[in-house]
Each structure stands twice: as C-alpha cells, then as structure tokens.
Design brief:
Blueprint (H helix, E strand, L loop, with lengths): L7 H41 L3 H26 L2 E2 L12 E2 L2 H29 L4 H12 L4
Antiparallel strand pairs: 1-2
C-alpha cells in the first residue's frame, strides 16, 4: 500500500496564488463587461433617438466609454511592472496605486451612468404624450438608475 503525503501548506500557497491570479483576470474582464453594458444601452438609444443632437451625444459617449475601457484594461494588465508582480509581491518591480485607480474608475463609472440615464429624459419631455405616459416612460428609463 502506497502512502501519499498531503502537503497542506503547499496546497494553500498554490490556492492563494491561483486566487490572486484569478482576481487579476477578473479585474480586466469586469472593466470590459461594464463597458459592453454601457455600449449596449447607448446602441439601443441610437435606434430610438433619430435626432441629430442626440446621435452626436450618443456617439460621443460611446467613444469616451470605449476609450476609457481600453485605457483601464491596458492599465489593469500592466498595473505592475513586471506584470507577474501583481500576484508575486516579493518580486522586484513596482505597481501603481490601485486605490487611486479604483476611485478614478468609480467616479468615471458614476458620471457616465448618470449621463446615460439622463440622455433619454429630455427626449421623453419633448414627446407629444399625456402626463401618465410620460411618467411611465420616465419610470422605465429611471429603472436604469437602480
């Protein structure tokens, strides 16, 4: 009968390393997923808002969201130089201040969410509908705030 020795410390170290590496990957995919959600809403707006001014605002927001997504994705990948310092803190190199990056990302996300939410409100206001219908449309678009 063979005996297998289980090294719990080595197992825990590997598990912790895998967790940190997955966290690094998820940071990147999260930023892209948020950008894709915003882009999908803005593309929907393009279909329902034919007016030139709205279309310019939508294309501007799409461009800003896309550029920010690319920038934060690249910054997320290269948050540490060398890259593997992100999960191997003992390795020589440097990392940028992640807390400042998270706050910047949060502020940008809140501002763009607010702009995306407010975009259809003026259009609803201009509609030739009774108050009840306008209120219901405000409510539908306002659900995006939640």
């Amino acid at each position: 009968m063979s005996h297998c020795k289980f090294d719990a410390e080595k197992f825990n170290q590997r598990r912790d390393l895998t967790s940190i590496q997955l966290h690094w990957v998820f940071q990147i995919t999260y930023k892209m997923a948020v950008a894709m959600n915003k882009a999908s809403i803005l593309l929907l707006y393009l279909r329902i808002m034919p007016q030139r001014l709205y279309r310019i605002a939508i294309f501007t927001l799409l461009t800003v969201v896309a550029l920010f997504a690319v920038a934060t994705t690249i910054a997320g990948v290269f948050q540490c130089i060398p890259v593997d310092k992100a999960w191997n803190k003992k390795k020589p190199g440097h990392c940028y201040n992640l807390v400042e990056a998270w706050y910047t990302n949060a502020v940008f996300s809140i501002v763009t969410d607010f702009l995306i939410l407010m975009l259809p409100m003026h259009m609803v206001y201009k509609l030739q509908r009774d108050r009840r219908e306008k209120f219901l449309l405000y409510a539908v678009f306002g659900l995006g705030f939640l």
